[in-house]
Write a structure and sequence with these properties.
133 residues, mainly alpha, elongated, 4 helices, 0% strand
Length: 133
Amino acid sequence: MDLSPLLKTLIIINNYLHDVATAMLLSSALILLVLYRQAEKDGPGAIAWLAGARRPLSAIATWSIVWIVVGGIPRAVFFQAVEWNLSDPSNKYLFTALMVKHALMWVAVGLGVVLWVRVRGLLRSADEYEVQA
C-alpha cells in the first residue's frame, strides 16, 4: 500500500499517541495502586489523598482507553504499510510479540478494573465510618 508522505506522517503520530495513551493508562493505575496501599495502611489522611486523586486518575484512564481504541483502528489498518517490513528478518516474530503484548495489556486492564472497584469500596467504607462517628 503506497501512502502519501502526509498520511504516513499522520499515521506515525497516531501510533506514537497510541503508545503514549497506553503509558498513561498504566501510569494512572500504578499511581492509584500506590495511593490505595497507602490509604489502607495510614488511614484517614491517606484516604483523603486517595479520594482526591481517584476522579482525575479515573479520567486519565478513561480517556486513555478511548484513545487506545480509537487510535488503534488506523494503527491496525495501516500496520503493514507503516510498521511491518516483511523483508526485515528482525520482524519475524513481531506478530507473536504483539499478541503477547495485547494479552498482557488485557490482563493489566482487568487488574486495573479490580483495583478501581477496591478503591471505590475503601472510599465507601470510609464514608460510612465517617457518618457513624
